[in-house]
Each structure stands twice: as structure tokens, then as C-alpha cells.
Amino acid sequence: MAITRWDPFRDVMTLQNRLNTIFQDFNRGQGENDYVSTAAFVPPVDIYEDEHKIVLKLEVPGLRQEDIDIQLENNTLTVRGERKFEKEEKEENFHRIERRYGSFFRSFTVPNTVNTENVKAGYDAGVLRVELEKRAEAKPKQIKVQVSSGAGSNAPKQVEGATSARTTESKTTAA
Fold it and tell me: pLDDT by residue (tens digit) across 97-153?
């Protein structure tokens, strides 16, 4: 009797392969073009923010401008698109098709600090870049602190990080 190594994921992989085969056979019955168009994908996205804008970068290589739709409505940014499978006239014997084809849909909640009238989008080298400019009231402001040394003086004074002798005296007398 041979000793075989037990792999707990082998049964899960077998089940997944069988389910994939069932769904592929089901879709093939409806036509080859339907099978390709039903495979949806989700493009990866990077989102970052600075003091002036929020930027989204989506990886969507192989798309044309007319295949991308961007909408901003009710504080929701929606990016839709479709990557079509280019069917060539000559018969190709594909060994593997790993790139995803079909339509995609991404939706992002946008904060109230964004100026919805000033949204820019650009597409370069397969990366869709959407810039959402912040409103002026949402941008950080520098506020100067004014310190008065008593009842008589209202002139602004510079606040420094070092502890003064007067502050040290008041702490010792309070204790």
C-alpha cells in the first residue's frame, strides 16, 4: 500500500474546476460571443488625496475613449467600461486566455468636500486618472494664534515651543 500525501485543498480545487466546466458548457450553448461577453472584470484602483484634490487611478489597458463612461451624481462617482474581445478573421489556436474581457463597473462615494463642477479625467498608458478638486472651504487654512499677556495688552505674540520662566513659576505655585 502506497502512502499518499493528503492535500486539503485538492478537493476544493476539484469542485471549483467542475463548477467552472458546468458554467462554461452552459454559456457555450448560447453562442461563443455570449461566453466572452459574460466574463466581467474589476479593474484595480489606487486612490490618494492631497490638500487640493482626490485622485483615482484605474488600470484599464486596451480601452478606447468611447468604451469608458464616467459619471458623478449624488456624491457617487461611477466608472463604467467595456473591454471587447477582438475577433480576428483567421483562426487562432489559443493555448490560454488570461486577460479579462467584458464590462466593468466601479462605484465610489465622494465626500462633500469635492467640487463636483471641476472633475478632470485623462487616459494614458492604460491608466485612467480621475481628479476631483476640493472646494475652497475644504482646503486647510493656516490660523495664527494670538496670546495676550494680561488685561492691558491685546497685541499678538509669537508662541514658541520652549517653556518660559513665568510658566514654570505658575506651575510651581499652583502645586
Answer: 777 778 888 999 999 889 988 899 999 999 999 999 998 876 677 788 888 876 555
If asked whether residues 53 and 104 sit together in one domain, one would say: yes
Can you read off the three cell numbers belonging to residue 113? 468636500
- For residue 68, being part of any structural domain is answered with yes
DSSP state of 125: T
Residues 44 and 124 in one domain: yes
Grid look-up 510651581 returns 172
User: Could you tell me if 79 and 112 lie in one domain?
Assistant: yes
d(CA 42, CA 80): 10
- Domains held by the chain: number: 2
* Dist CA 94 CA 70 (whole Å): 33
Pairing between β-strand 102-109 and β-strand 76-83 as defined by DSSP bridges: antiparallel
The answer to whether the CB of 102 falls within 8 A of the CB of 36 is yes
The three three-digit cell numbers of residue 53, written as one number: 484634490
For 15, the domain range is 9-38
> What pTM was estimated for this model as a whole?
0.55
Q: How far apart are CA 114 and CA 133, in angstroms?
A: 6
Q: 56 with 132, same domain? A: yes
Are residues 84 and 33 in contact, defined by beta-carbon separation less than 8 angstroms? no
In the sheet that holds 102-109, the strands lie side by side as: 68-73, 76-83, 102-109
